[in-house]
Design a protein that fits this description.
The protein is of the alpha/beta class. The chain has 9 helices and 9 strands. A 7-stranded mixed beta sheet has the order 5-4-3-6-7-8-9. Strands 1-2 form a two-stranded antiparallel sheet. Helix 2 packs across helix 4. Residues about 225-235 have low confidence and may be disordered. Its EC number is 2.1.1.77.
Amino acid sequence: MAKANLSEWSELVLNMVDNGVIKTEKVKNTMLNVDRQYYVPGPFDPYLDTALPIGFGATINAPHMHAMVLELLKDHLAPGASALDVGSGSGYLTACMALMVGPTGLVVGIDHIAHLVQLAQRNILNGNSFLLGWDSIIFRTADGRLGYPENAPYDAIHVGAATQNVPSILLEQLAPGGRLVVPVGNRKTYQILMQVDKSLDGKIQKKRISAVRFVHLTDITSQGKRASQITLNDVCG
């Protein structure tokens, strides 16, 4: 890793600490150890705090969004925990989650586009290959709207694309005491990042975190149409 790149990434992470986006040592250290340069394909600057295209109409979210999600999920990504990353894309947040649950935990990253699953695996091999040696991270090609019941229940679930409503299928796969973070709303109008907690007795409590702008969680056919129409304005707002 080039020192200049490490310095740029460290500077961005520490700037998020100074601005209160990153609030804990756990999230700071995790992001410092997962350099975004390995997860942004093509000609784009990985150290810009903005969402960027990764192909097929999908995006890698802005670093401040990754930091926000990790802060919301940090207590549910304890060593040995189980987590699901829906719409894993280029693998950045999946890698962060795997680092946080450690070698005794498990993170499942799913995407319905096989090429993106392969991209995520390659990115982790290049940037954080020790995670693959831990056997704490797996990727699957699957419809994110259905979750991944084979490894459920999950202590933490992240959804990296917007849904019209909080998905009931994902709530079923959330463990008692677990937390789901998902953007909810219509891409053309209004979206809210939602924190959804399941109590030990199965009760659901929802909390609105902030206004956001995400591409939509969809099927592979619709994703193909979306890929032909996407522009930087769609992902950088």
